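queue> pop job 88
queue> type: inverse folding (structure -> sequence)
queue> payload:
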């Protein structure tokens, strides 16, 4: 879990706490004057020192040395700030590394960056497909917000603060197409929460981006979060959606194990309630999105 923050940095892994890594990354990013030049290697001397800490020299399985963004957390912070150009750069690094874990980080941030880029643009949506390649949903993005903590109580406080900042969210209809994205986390249960209304039903959707064939279904964490959200507004239904890039579609995707239950919540806008035990696996959904084209 600490690897999410420290990544390839042995110094961060063994000498820093997670909070210290977060502070260090924030400090280093403040020293980068022009993020548009970050990947062009044309930064100033002071900035270059910061960049050197945000990157790590990684040896690939073929024995080649590659300059890679040092961790999942750093990848997330930079791509969130720079958008598409950072995603393209990260894909190029991933191809050189041939490291499934790093590719997983990049794919996650590709999807979240697409969500961020669609924010507030009524003409831009993130289309997701079924296994046949047919677009069956267009996910709108009215607003995105990052939150720092996975503990249900702390998240509840953050969301109350969000309500105060965005007064229009006090009305149920204004929760439509809101995305909540964890910034500091280690639970591994979801990458984003998508809140929208359909057929007068408010639906909370837990979205997990993955390229793996197997996944541990941590429903107990989703339940804690759903219960926290239920203190703020009435939840009509809950969905659990796994998202993969179309080119990495896994036909034999399955769950290694399941922990927890969403029993008591309805499944999406249906009248069906979530089951208990292994039957919950069949109530989860799989969707596919078009990955950003890699830079040449």
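queue> result:
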């Amino acid at each position: 879990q600490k690897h999410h923050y420290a990544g390839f940095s042995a110094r961060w892994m063994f000498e820093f706490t997670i909070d210290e890594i977060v502070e260090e990354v924030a400090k280093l990013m403040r020293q980068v004057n022009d993020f548009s030049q970050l990947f062009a290697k044309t930064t100033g001397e002071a900035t270059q020192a910061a960049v050197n800490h945000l990157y790590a020299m990684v040896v690939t399985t073929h024995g080649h040395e590659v300059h890679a963004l040092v961790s999942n957390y750093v990848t997330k912070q930079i791509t969130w700030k720079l958008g598409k150009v950072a995603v393209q750069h990260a894909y190029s690094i991933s191809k050189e590394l041939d490291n499934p874990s790093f590719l997983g980080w990049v794919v996650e941030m590709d999807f979240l960056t697409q969500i961020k880029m669609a924010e507030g643009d009524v003409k831009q949506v993130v289309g997701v497909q079924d296994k046949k390649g047919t677009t069956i949903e267009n996910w709108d993005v009215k607003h995105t917000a990052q939150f720092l903590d996975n503990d249900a109580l702390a998240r509840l406080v953050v969301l109350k603060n969000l309500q105060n900042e965005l007064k229009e969210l006090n009305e149920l209809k204004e929760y439509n197409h809101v995305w909540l994205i964890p910034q500091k986390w280690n639970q591994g249960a979801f990458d984003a929460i998508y809140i929208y209304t359909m057929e007068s039903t408010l639906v909370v959707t837990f979205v997990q981006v993955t390229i793996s064939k197997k996944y541990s279904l941590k429903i107990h964490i989703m339940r804690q979060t759903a219960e926290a959200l239920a203190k703020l507004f009435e939840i009509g239904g809950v969905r659990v959606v796994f998202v993969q890039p179309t080119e990495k579609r896994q036909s034999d995707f399955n769950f290694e194990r399941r922990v927890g239950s969403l029993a008591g919540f309805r499944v999406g806008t249906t009248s069906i309630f979530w089951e208990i035990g292994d039957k919950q696996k069949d109530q989860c959904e799989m969707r596919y999105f078009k990955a950003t084209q890699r830079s040449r």
